[in-house]
Amino acid sequence: MILDGGLSTALAARGHDLSDALWTARLLRDAPEEVAAVHRTYYEAGAEVATTASYQASVAGFGNAGLSRAEAEDLLRLSVTLAREVRDEQVARDGRRRLVAASVGPYGAVLADGSEYRGRYGLSAARLRDFHLPRIETLAAAGPDLLAVETVPDLDEAEVLVGILDQVGLPAWLSYSVSGGRTRAGQPLEDAFAVAAGSPAVVATGVNCCAPADVLPALEVAARVSGRPGVAYPNSGQGWDSGTRTWSGDTAYDVTLAPSWVAAGAAWVGGCCQVGPDDIATLSALLGG
């Protein structure tokens, strides 16, 4: 299936400042109609899956912005509701099947300091579970079709997440952020993807928010080790500065690489940061929707 591109990319293109710690999740509170508009734009570009604006959303993060637990949980649910409403609108219009994937970012995303590209937070498995379980349960209860557990930098965190996914029981993909054939925390990909091998909830494994050149070798390992279909949605390959929260360099996102990802087992293909609606339209045309 064709995934969407970067939610932040499309929101920034619409003039929104995403420089605070909540990133795209801020707009769930301040401009939910803009989040819905971006979902609509990606669906109209050919995406078959919309990923919710919950990547950097958590009770703790919203609490730091002055919201109560109840308000934070409402916004988590709203992230799914917005995508579902747009999905239903699009399906009613043309009858094509579309899905909503509730985004579950790693613990490091909530720190808003680039930790999701390093991992190794120094937290116990119990602490990570206490962080992830409530928000995954809240997102799952809002009725997405599946969970997008994404940009995971560390197999230790992945082990905790897979245990929660099996407990919750909603289908999910598990997607690592990788660099040079290892997780961002430096672990071998064979070990990382083995975490999902026995999971009944994980329906696909792969990579996202990595350089396009890292996708194919990671998919080959994922297919061999996890025995699952692949998921692939790299970023543009540009450099990210977590201090200034800016991207630099030239894009390396090339949709002509996508057929090789599909040949390696990817059943879910799209883009991440700095990949926008025009890229997804080109990707959809290339892969035949």
From TrEMBL:
Residues 1-287 form the Hcy-binding domain. Binds 1 zinc ion per subunit. Its EC number is 2.1.1.10. The keyword Zinc applies. Its cofactor is Zn(2+). It comes from the Bacteria. InterPro entries: HCY_dom (IPR003726), HCY_dom_sf (IPR036589), Hcy_S-methyltransferase (IPR051486). Keywords: Metal-binding, Methyltransferase, Transferase, Zinc. GO terms for biological process: methionine biosynthetic process; methylation; S-methylmethionine cycle. The keyword Zinc applies. This is Homocysteine S-methyltransferase. The gene is mmuM.
